[in-house]
Each structure stands twice: as C-alpha cells, then as structure tokens.
Design goal:
Helices cover 74% and strands 0% of the residues. The protein has one domain. The chain has 9 helices and no strands. The model has no long low-confidence stretch (mean pLDDT 81). Helix 1 crosses helix 4. The longest helix is centred in the first third of the chain and has 34 residues.
C-alpha cells in the first residue's frame, strides 16, 4: 500500500512540475508578445501607467484639488490605478486568453486555465514593478510617501488579482455560451472605472452615493489600499469579510463554469 501511495505522490509531483514549467513558458511568451516587439520593451508599461496618473494629476492641479488624509497626490492616484489595473487587465486577459492562444491548446500539456494563470501573473508582476518605479519617482520629487500599514498594501495586492481571476473566469466562460458578452464586458469595465473611486475617495461622498458604490469590491480594495498610506486616523470604508466573500464566490463560480464550458469551440 505504501508503494502505491508513493507512486501516486510521484505522479502528482511530476504533473505539478510539468504544469509549472508550462505556466513559466506561457509567462515568458506573454511578456515577449506584449513588450518584445517594441524598442521601449517593458518600459512601455511604466510609461502608460505614469501617463494615466499624470493626466489625472494635472486635472486635479488645475481644479485646485488636494489629496485628502495626508496623502501625496502621486500616491493617492497610484493607490487607485494599481488595484484597478490589476483587476481590469486580469479580466480582459482572461476574456481573450483562449481565443488568442488556440494554437497552444493543441499541446496536451497546455490547458485553458494555464493560459489564464500565466496572463494573471504577468499582469500582477507588471503592475508591481510599475508601482515601485512610480513610488521611487514620487520620493525623488518630494511627494509625501508614508506606509503606515504594510499589511493593507500586501492584502490588496493579493485580493485584486484573485478577484480579477474569478471575474475573468466567469466572463470568459459565459462568453463561450453568449459571444456577445465579449463586446458588452469592455463597456461595463469603462463604467466601473468611473464608479470604483480610482481618482476620488468613495467614502467621502454622501451616503446615498457611497453605499451603492461600495457594493463594488474594487472600490473597497482601493479604499483599503489608500488607508495603508493614509496619515489620517479616519479609516476609509471597506469590509474585509465582504472582499473575501466576493473573491471566494467569483473564484468558485468561475472555476465551475470554466469546467463546464471547457473544450467547447469558440463561435
């Protein structure tokens, strides 16, 4: 019996190593596809994020707005864009993963989940590097940067890709059943961009506006991440239990739907 158990464990270990190598190869392929064909390469991701922050920074400066709760404007906007980009890019990449890589699925070692995991890791890693570069630049130009709660930052950087993966799996699976969703989902994401508090504090709005907006877990993640950098003792509104439930439900439903539609031909 111990021999059988040992053989079974050996097969599981070998399969895990193979899938790990597959995902690593997919990550390298994704990075090369995204950034290998331009002269700027990986630097382009940093330029895009810095440009987005710079535009909204300029708008707020023109309007005379200041970042609340002791935050520097660069950090205030970065804490909005980082969770949002991780979530939205993850959903978008999962939605298009199978259609963009159908040729790879002819290899028996490659699964649809592998494609999505590889893309999620690339998005997550890219945003982490970009954020570190922008924080460094903010310190150089004299922006106030004070991390008062490192666990809040680490937690939001973990929950954002998990939520994006869960929602991405749900959207990708449903799009296999109803292809029209591939056109509807990007429009929904544009609406969520303005409703997630990327460039404003949701908790500072009147309760008749903040309550419905905080039903959006991304808005809560952004509030939570800003709290980690806030110099104020007033905590923005977020619920750890609500965020955990949203991640767990979306991941569970997404994995079930992915298994249900796996192998179906794309329309």
């Amino acid at each position: 019996m111990s021999v059988t158990s040992s053989a079974s464990n050996s097969r599981v270990s070998a399969a895990t190593v193979v899938q790990g190598r597959v995902i690593a190869a997919l990550i390298l392929r994704e990075i090369h596809t995204l950034y290998g064909n331009t002269r700027l390469g990986y630097l382009w991701a940093i330029i895009q994020a810095a440009f987005s922050i710079g535009v909204f920074w300029l708008i707020r400066e023109v309007l005379g707005a200041r970042a609340p709760h002791g935050l520097g404007m660069a950090i205030f906007l970065l804490c909005g864009f980082t969770p949002w980009y991780i979530f939205s890019e993850t959903v978008t990449k999962c939605l298009n993963a199978v259609r963009a890589n159908q040729a790879l699925l002819t290899f028996p070692q490659v699964t649809e989940l592998d494609l999505m995991f590889g893309r999620v890791i690339v998005v997550w890693g890219t945003q982490l590097v970009t954020s570190l570069v922008i924080i460094t630049l903010a310190i150089i130009i004299g922006q106030p940067v004070e991390l008062r709660d490192p666990m809040s930052l680490l937690a939001t950087l973990l929950f954002a890709p998990l939520l994006g993966l869960g929602v991405g799996l749900v959207c990708s699976s449903l799009a296999r059943l109803w292809p029209t969703l591939e056109k509807i989902i990007p429009m929904v994401m544009r609406f969520l961009f303005f409703a997630s508090g990327v460039f404003f504090f949701v908790s500072e709005l009147p309760s008749r506006l903040s309550r419905p907006l905080l039903l959006n877990p991304i808005a809560q993640l952004i509030e939570w991440q800003r709290y980690g950098f806030s110099a104020s003792s007033v905590a923005p509104a977020y619920s750890l239990k609500y965020i955990c439930v949203c991640c767990a439900v979306s991941l569970s439903l997404g994995l079930l739907l992915e298994r249900y539609v796996r192998g179906r031909e794309l329309s």
